Amino acid sequence: MTEPTTLDxxxxxxxxxxxxxxxxxxxxxxxxxLSRESGLAKGTIYHHFQDKREIYHNVMERDLARIxxxxxxxxxxxxxxxIWLHCFVRTFLQEAEERRSHxxxxxxxxxxxxxGMLQIAKRVREQVGGRVASVxxxxxxxxxxxxxxxxxxxxxxxxxxNTYIAWQLVVExxxxxxxxxxxxxxxxxxxxxxxxxx
Amino acid sequence: MTEPTTLDxxxxxxxxxxxxxxxxxxxxxxxxxLSRESGLAKGTIYHHFQDKREIYHNVMERDLARIxxxxxxxxxxxxxxxIWLHCFVRTFLQEAEERRSHxxxxxxxxxxxxxGMLQIAKRVREQVGGRVASVxxxxxxxxxxxxxxxxxxxxxxxxxxNTYIAWQLVVExxxxxxxxxxxxxxxxxxxxxxxxxx
Amino acid sequence: MTEPTTLDxxxxxxxxxxxxxxxxxxxxxxxxxLSRESGLAKGTIYHHFQDKREIYHNVMERDLARIxxxxxxxxxxxxxxxIWLHCFVRTFLQEAEERRSHxxxxxxxxxxxxxGMLQIAKRVREQVGGRVASVxxxxxxxxxxxxxxxxxxxxxxxxxxNTYIAWQLVVExxxxxxxxxxxxxxxxxxxxxxxxxx
Amino acid sequence: MTEPTTLDxxxxxxxxxxxxxxxxxxxxxxxxxLSRESGLAKGTIYHHFQDKREIYHNVMERDLARIxxxxxxxxxxxxxxxIWLHCFVRTFLQEAEERRSHxxxxxxxxxxxxxGMLQIAKRVREQVGGRVASVxxxxxxxxxxxxxxxxxxxxxxxxxxNTYIAWQLVVExxxxxxxxxxxxxxxxxxxxxxxxxx
DNA sequence: AATGAATGAGTCTTCATTCAT
DNA sequence: CATGAATGAAGACTCATTCAT
Lengths: 198, 198, 198, 198
Prior knowledge:
The structure is a homotetramer. By secondary structure, chain A is mainly alpha-helical. Helices cover 78% and strands 0% of the residues of chain A. Chain A is built from 9 helices and no strands. In chain A, helix 5 packs antiparallel against helix 7. Chain A starts with a helix and ends in an 8-residue tail after the last helix. The interface between A and B is large, with 57 and 57 residues. The structure holds a DNA duplex.
């Protein structure tokens, strides 16, 4: 039963790759770096993966699966759309704080991505975004949310979150303030305008 | 009067670089490509710029100046905060449609950026974001906007815009729908919650 | 038993490098030449050595080891200082004839050398020169040589040899005349002055 | 009479070139460096000299002329061969201390030199060495020096001097000790052997 | 006399990838 | 499963040199 060894190596590689991709992007990281960082020979890397691209794919897929699972778990059994969204936002930001790579990478490479990769990016968007959208749709159906194209709402929410992450984590390198999650949610729910001016 | 030759060459290079950076990112574009695309020899490029990095800097700076001017012009003389924001959003999206490079690049390279570049990214954020923030502050002072940390509002707006651009332009490669500007603004102003539930 | 392949490749590279360095100096030889001359791809060269400089270092070190061993062997078991010096001179010139690179290179690059290389040059001087110096000291102690700073003597001897090599081998490209070794030694032992004028 | 301007520029270039060649050798210095160091544009350099090689030639020739003149002046009117040699040695070392470039360069590039340059190197050797040789011949004729091939003596002397310069100036970067001139001369005149052992 | 823009071959070095072991 | 030797195309950047002004 030497099976776990294989799995270990693959995961070792993906772990190192994830870190490097997060730091340097797809074009900016090299197999040599990956070999050094993972402690495995270049040959070994190519034994487990066909391509640099395949490594990228795998990192993305794995990350996607993780974040999906994470969010799903956090949100499981929650029926109320508002509470659901609260949970989502908190988990999203927490996740970002713990491993910064994924969201950053997704946001980044988009221009240079060729088809294969774009598919993954789209799947993330669809998977994560789709879940959010359906909750919003539910809220609209329940008459609690305004009848607005859910896409717009999703974009606004994820955009705010990503921008917050990009600004706070990447640029400032500061730590995520948990209070912000609530402020973002509040703003997301009520917008800018003062009620009396509605 | 062939004097502007110098200026022309530098600009020719920057124009080509802008296009390439927009497509492939900093790490992903090569001087060789730049040479081919600009029609100038590699030596010539290095005659005008010290570094690949210097080229990047210049592209960013130039773009920053352009977009700033653009927005400033669009917004000049507008006093009403809501109208101001409308103008801003429209110009921001228009600008993105016309030359896609800047916002995309900014959003992208962040992880791999070293200090010099980050400074520029920060300046964009401060310059563009700061302007928006002050308008929002004005709106709050006038009692028209809710008393909310302007940063949160700015993040939400710019995040929504960036995400829209990233999703629509980069991934879908589709054209910006002018109606979206209004929808984003509407959402930004009123949020998700139905009024009767306030 | 094709194990020595590694060693072979490294040595193949160093052999070619030695030849090229001897001909063109450090700055004057190119990795491309080295690749052509060694029959190995540029990538392979960089697989075995980090740097152009590291190649240089290795060539020097290897040569230093060789010449040291050579001289040591030639001089082994010789007690009489005069005979010792005779052996040394002959071996030194012979060595120079067989592989011209080392002495020439050493003599040459000195101005452009950075620390790492200078250390090697110093070691040669100390190793080879030191041995000669100690023999001269022994001769002085035995009362056979004049009580003169050994450094001066060493310098004069090695200077004469190097100059001879430079003039005869490099400029004239002629072959070393074995008689010269004796003439140099004679001059080294007795100097210019006629005895009756002492 | 704007003639001196020309001369000035040429000399400015040669001065800078001399310094650079002394430091980096022929292959190791670049026209760009020369342009920066001399404060003149690359075009200007090529206005005055056809080639990198021509610059090298000129530096060498000029230096050769200088050192020749220097030595000639120092030795002028001296009849006694021993005193002549003393003056020569002192001047040679002084010269080396003042501008280190010439001797070093000569000693260095030899391997990489093509014909044109070698001719100069040979001329130096013949001019400087020849003068020394003829004084030694005179001494032999006067019965004061041993009847030894003058070449051997010249080689020993210039070799000792060069080696001293290389070791002290280049490697140690220390200052020339004037006492050494006398010690070298003493050794040159009397050799290593103690008189009573003759 | 002097400039600086322009060039393309050439510099060292890194790349992703293959393959025999 | 794992290695490290090997590759050649591509990377950023420098070179000596030309030429219009």
